[in-house]
Amino acid sequence: MAIDWFPGSWKRFPALQQPEYPDAAALESVLAELSLLPPLVTSWEVAALKEQLAQASAGKCFVLQGGDCAERFADCTSQRIANQIKILIQMSLVLVQGSGKPVVRLGRFAGQYAKPRSADFEEVDGRTLPSYRGDLINRPETTLEARTPNPQLLLRGYERAALTLNFIRALVKGGFADLHHPEYWDLDWTRHSPQAAEYHRLLLSITESLKFMENILGQPAGGSDRIDFYTSHEALHLGYEQAQTRRVPHRPGWFNLSTHFPWVGIRTASPEGAHVEYLRGIANPVGVKVGTATAPEQVLRIIDALDPANQPGRVTLIHRFGVERIAEGLPPLVEAVRREGRTVLWMCDPMHGNTRSTSAGLKTRSFEEIESELNQAFDIHAACGSILGGVHIELTGENVTECTGGARGLEDHDLHEAYETEVDPRLNYEQALELALLVAHRMNKLGA
Ligand code: PEP
Ligand code: CO
Predict the structure, then answer these.
(1) Which atom, in ligand 1's list, is nearest to the CA of 320?
(2) Ligand 1 centre and the CA of 216: distance in Å?
(3) Rounded to an integer, what is the distance from CA 196 to the centroid of its chain?
(4) Among 172, 314, 326, 347, fewest CB within 10 Å belongs to which?
């Protein structure tokens, strides 16, 4: 157990990106209420994920982490949730075929409601308003009332996370993710997608190999009727995370039971900061974003704090450099980790280093840059003798126009057609599937 740690020990360290609530007593009473609500996930699921991440760090499986940049309360609807699950299932099947390995599905959902911001305030029509920090904290409308952090939203967020997860669990249990019924998770417009033919070919080959296996075994293939999902979110609001930090019978340590996999973002990953202090003491597998501003020596200090026992599966380093900087930035980090004999899971987030604004002021990312950063990540890890064990993607199962490029060649001037995100631009359904096909081809080529 971590020395000198308790669920609130983070308060002794500088905590960045925390909202300022006007009524401290109201916040405390909400946190007290939250800490009595039942957990969303179980410690044995958390332990199972850690084991699978350990496998991924050894190259025995591959992790697909994906979902919205910021989940919205208004998107907690059956159709949105089902579409998100469908695209993740489709991508993961493509990756299974390409890599020849099991794929671990880790959603950015059921709690991805709090966002870090580069500025605490923004100017709107000559007025200064607190920035929107995600539905867990405040609302995006441009009034002072909407932007004032409201602790009741922590409860609303927890409830929606529970509703989301409840529906996902029911879908999975009810056979929605059964490999014998791929027709359940065909999205309506798969048929019109430029990738449709390749995807359907692939599906056919999966169903045929399944039938072949079952004929040989004379019984249903083990596990083929069940696809598991794990949840993840950025552990940003430390009061919220602390309220979900529990002990369980028969298993040592403290668990964050609001999610299987909490991660810290690039802005809060300082080894001296409150977020790393909080993650240090929980038993979950944890992620840390790293990028151009992360010195190799800093990565080692973070790993020392989070994983003194060097347990495989405990730490995932999610690198997000940007297409121009990964070639220079990544090798020194890989080298430092290797030199110290550390075991980490390397995951590439090709989204967050490639954000730009259009002349119309929309935040976007180019599919080709995302693809190029991912390709470079595969090359660099292959050259350094390390393993790229997963990808971290912002995507949606909807037909949005937020990122440029891809098979349909979306351009800046097309983006206004279905631009929905409040925060970062996501790959739409077709772009996400196209990226999965590219990664699958890539892994085939590597013979991974
Ligand atoms: C994110 O994943 O949405 C995010 C804010 O990433 P980063 O911390 O890498 O900027
Ligand atoms: Co984002």
Answers:
(1) 9
(2) 46
(3) 26
(4) 172
DSSP-based three-state secondary structure for 145? helix
Each of the 448 residues of the chain gets a pLDDT tens digit; together they read: 678 999 999 999 999 999 999 999 999 999 999 999 999 999 999 999 999 999 999 999 999 999 999 999 999 999 999 999 999 998 998 898 888 899 999 999 999 999 999 999 999 999 999 999 999 999 999 999 999 999 999 999 999 999 999 999 999 888 777 777 777 666 666 666 777 787 777 777 777 776 766 666 566 555 555 568 999 999 999 999 999 999 999 999 999 999 999 999 999 999 999 999 999 999 999 999 999 999 999 999 999 999 999 999 999 999 999 999 999 999 999 999 999 999 999 999 999 999 999 999 999 999 999 999 999 999 999 999 999 999 999 999 998 999 999 988 999 999 999 999 989 999 999 999 999 999 998 988 665 5
Long-range CB pairs of 77-81, under 8 A, 24+ apart, other chains included: 78/167, 80/397, 80/398, 81/109, 81/164, 81/167, 81/168
Index of the ligand 1 atom closest to the CA of residue 265: 8
Q: How far apart are the CA of 426 and the centre of ligand 2, in A? A: 8
Q: What are phi and psi of 151, to 5 degrees?
A: -65, -25
Burial 223-247 (b: 16+ CB within 10 A, else e): eeeebebbbbbbbbbbbbbbbbbbe
**How many residues can be counted in the chain?**
448
Q: What is the pTM of this model?
A: 0.94
Kind plus residue range of the DSSP H or E element containing 207: helix 196-217
Q: Give the ligand 1 atom nearest the CA of 267.
A: 8
Whether 101 and 89 have beta carbons less than 8 Å apart is answered as no
Residue 352 Cα to ligand 1 middle (Å): 6
Domain ranges of the chain: 9-116+151-447
Span from the CA of 428 to the centroid of ligand 2 (angstroms) = 14
Looking at ligand 1, which residue's alpha carbon is closest to its atom 4?
265
